[in-house]
Amino acid sequence: MERLHPYDNVPVQFSCHVQQCDGSVTLHEWLADGPEDPRPELAKRLVNACKDVQTVVAYNAGFEKKCIEQMADAFPSLAEPLRNIAARLVDLLPVVRNHLYHPDFAGSFS
Hints:
The chain has helices spanning 39-50, 61-74, 79-87, 93-99, and strands at residues 13-19, 25-31, 56-58, 89-91. By secondary structure, it is of the alpha+beta class. The chain has a two-stranded antiparallel sheet with strand order 1-2. Strands 3-4 form a two-stranded parallel ribbon. Helix 2 (61-74) packs antiparallel against helix 3.
């Protein structure tokens, strides 16, 4: 397992809504609890949640991709499915930046 370094991102939660062909939605979510490294369990659950999906939509996909790729480096047994998820990411941030604005955003999209 890869060791963490100062300033490394450590993912501690995820929420994944999977839309089925019939239009129904299945929610997969996980939040770390306790002092253990949350990445192994998060990685397993993320792979399970995304195993049957074609496209993974994320807001600020660059950040999400980096976290997923770091977990792939840290956990060789899950590297292939994690890299597969990272390759299927589609970024929603440009869509929001280019087509949505509200004064309460105060110029920020974070």
